[in-house]
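question for whoever is on the cluster today: can someone run the full assembly for these? two chains, 616 residues total. i dont have access anymore since they changed the login thing
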Amino acid sequence: MSAVDDSGSFGWSAPRWRLFAPVLAVLLTGAVNWRFGAVVALWLAAWGVNTLLARQGGRVARAIVPVLFGLTLLVIWELVVRLFAVPSVILPAPSMIAARIADSLPLLWGDFVQTAIKGALSGFAIGCGAAVLVAVLIDRSAFLQKGLLPVANFAAALPIVGTAPVLVMWFGFDWESKAAVVVLMVFFPMLVNTMAGLTQAGAMQRDLMQTYGATYWQALFKLRFPAAMPFIFNGLKICTTLALIGAIVAEFFGSPVRGMGFRISTAVGQLALDLVWAEIAVAALAGSAFYGIMALIERWVTFWHPSQRH
Amino acid sequence: MTDAAQTAVPIIRGAALRRFGGGVYPILAVLIALIAVWYLAAAWMNSTWTMDQAARAGTSPGFSEILADTMSQDRPKLPAPHQVAAEFYDLVFNKPVTSKRSLVWHAWVTLSATLVGFGIGTVLGIVLALGIVHNRAMDLSVMPWAIASQTIPILAIAPMIIVVLNSIGITGLLPKAVISAYLSFFPVVVGMVSGLRSPDAMQMDLLRTYNASRAEILWKLRFPASVPYLFASLKVGIAAALVGAVVGELPVQQGGLGARLLGGSYYGQTVQMWAALFMAAILAAVLVLIVTRIEAGLLKRMGLRQ
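^ ran it for u. tokens below:
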């Protein structure tokens, strides 16, 4: 399947080296410290299975290998914490975090609603909507486009999250200020992507619309918007992560007594690291789900695009 | 001499025109519009405070008096642009660089963490990309997790990482650099993987007919081909590294632009906050510009761009 040449380059014949080196590594580290040896042995065994699976190829391996890798990391994390007796104020074990999540589901749900739904989602909708609207409004003015594109490109590279304290001052501690930070953070990346997307329809296609006698708006909605969708969704996917970051970071500058950012900063102060990691797990889950939903909608909307045709 | 000077002007202007895609005037117009909006917003947002004060003093100021007051408050809701500019100038040029009141000193604290983190992140990203390109098992197992790692709002947990690293005795520059590195490694991995894979089948076949080893293919084909991709990633990565350093400075008040932002928000020093924000923006712009310049020079020397 793969054309990569795996043999040679080490001087020995590959199979012997491949068997010998891991065993040697385990024995050496085990001789120094049996705990190290156990961790290294587990890692190498899992990696060996992954290598074998990866070499087989196919759909199944493609699905199993990453999962196995993730599980290996979790197990090694657990093992390291237990074997070396790492204090839980530095790094709690995954099992401890899982127990904490199971214990405090209502608390986590409340924080999730406050931060992800009220703060991030509303800001995401307003910011991305406004960016698309602005892109359409300035679409007919080449002058404004030429002026705004470099400014927007520049603004997209700025540390906009730094405006969070200012916005918290203006809009108060509740979710409105978080939504405002999110709006600012997602606006420029979205604007740049939408503007780039609107230039995607080819000259021939636009000529065709003209020969049909299509108005500007007909051409926009029937041709240029659909053609811009891959870019628009690229922007939307980038903005999902930005939105969550903005909402959580803004809570560090003041928030009501719930919310993921608030919980993280207070739990760190109380050295309740298992709760912090529980919030992180929720944030990671929310971020991945948000991204995944966008990717699914993208697949449904831009089914015609080469990148979606597997 | 005068001749040369006269011809130089149109050349410079031509270069600027090309770079900005046809005219600095549109950009100027947009910027002027932005500043005008800013002044209007400042007048509008600060007027409540002015009216409050006037009501308490029992006076009724005229429109021009209100306007003048909104432009020169000590702790305005939104400082006017000239107030920010004056504060910025004062903090940058009128303070000794080594003093903790100097914005240059704070910018340096942030910049050093940014650069260290950016360096670590870049090296890590390139190493990971090399592994992913050369090892199929790594490609299948690491790549999905590298992508998933970016859906985790790392900035959100940055303060926790700082506090934990502080509690085990790692303080100062390094914790911030860790955050910067985490943020900047991802663009480098993604860019370098596509870059190292960008040589087409014909070029790879040619090197195989030469019986080139994998190391030779890497040095003579894959690395040179990946340079444009690398620099595109570095531009994203260095901006992300700066954001990471700023956020990393929030929980520990040991200087830096992030500490200035939080301090300003605690004590209501809005003008100071805006000055710090502008310093961060200028820093980001300069860093991206430097990377762009290095890219242009390198690509020109490699013959990839005329």
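summary bc i know u wont read the tokens: The two ends of chain B are 28 Å apart (CA to CA). Chain B has two domains: 2-78, 103-302.
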